[in-house]
Design the sequence.
């Protein structure tokens, strides 16, 4: 099996990128925090299919963890990650230190606007500023590329879209579908934290979302009623501490007063099961 080349410095990465671009190659970029699963692999597959050179970054970004979160214990397995990158055809892995990513320190974060203020942004203040700061930095290093993100972090995807537009970065942001276990649980590096009984309860998030989709697609126009339907399903899991269940407009993240005919909405849920904080979402189109 082919192992990708691993570079740890910006200078080495740029040398490889410059050489590839001089030969006419397009660059696909998959930013990750490692502990890669099939969801990440699907992003690598998408990049390999569309671009000539696929770069995966593996960097656990301290800025996006809020105090009390799992920065110190965040799961890491570089060997397995490199094997997975190789199996899926990635060419290059950028595995930098924090000093390499933030050579001048991190005291000038990129601030995220209203789109990052609700839901995850409300539950985890400063999280999206941390995400935007590292993604902007990585985009500036990698330069012109297509960048692949999973829709599981749907609000993150919206934040990144907005940031790329605001900063006029030469990056085409590609959202890729969520990859799920057969029982509906969305893949996440943090699923490793689930104890067996919590793992059995975890698909309730997806079931709740499906009940919301049924309500919207069945002609429900009241967002409060749709959220109520999702909350009723979430209540089936005795150990789930629900953080939020929400319905927003897909592009703005605004909460509509009424679900308009033909409109695209996003249903999102988040909660904590034991040590694992789980999030999930699906889209729905009103009839
Ligand atoms: O989605 C993630 O894994 C992270 O938030 C990202 C985009 C790699 C930034 O650290």
Sequence:
């Amino acid at each position: 099996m082919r192992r990708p080349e691993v570079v740890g410095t910006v200078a080495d990465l740029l040398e490889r990128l410059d050489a590839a671009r001089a030969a006419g190659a397009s660059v696909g970029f998959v930013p990750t925090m490692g502990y890669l699963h099939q969801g990440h692999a699907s992003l690598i597959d998408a990049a390999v299919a569309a671009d000539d050179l696929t770069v995966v970054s593996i960097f656990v970004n301290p800025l996006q963890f809020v105090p009390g979160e799992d920065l110190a214990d965040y799961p890491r397995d570089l060997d397995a990650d490199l094997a997975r990158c190789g199996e899926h055809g990635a060419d290059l892995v950028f595995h930098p230190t924090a000093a390499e990513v933030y050579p001048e320190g991190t005291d000038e974060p990129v601030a995220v606007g209203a789109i990052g203020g609700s839901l995850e942004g409300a539950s985890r203040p400063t999280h999206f500023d941390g995400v935007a700061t590292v993604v902007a930095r990585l985009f500036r290093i990698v330069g012109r590329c297509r960048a692949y993100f999973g829709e599981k972090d749907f609000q993150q995807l919206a934040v990144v879209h907005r940031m790329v537009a605001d900063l006029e970065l030469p990056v085409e942001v590609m959202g890729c579908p969520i990859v799920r276990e057969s029982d509906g649980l969305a893949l996440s590096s943090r699923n490793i934290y689930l104890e067996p009984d919590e793992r059995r309860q975890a698909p309730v998030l997806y079931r709740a979302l499906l009940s919301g989709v049924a309500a919207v697609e069945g002609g429900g126009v009241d967002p409060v009623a749709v959220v109520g339907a999702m909350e009723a399903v979430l209540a089936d899991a005795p150990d789930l501490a629900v953080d939020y269940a929400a319905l927003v407009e897909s592009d703005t993240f605004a909460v509509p007063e009424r679900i308009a005919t033909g409109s695209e909405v996003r249903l999102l849920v988040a909660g904590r099961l034991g040590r694992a904080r789980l999030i999930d979402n699906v889209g729905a189109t009103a009839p």
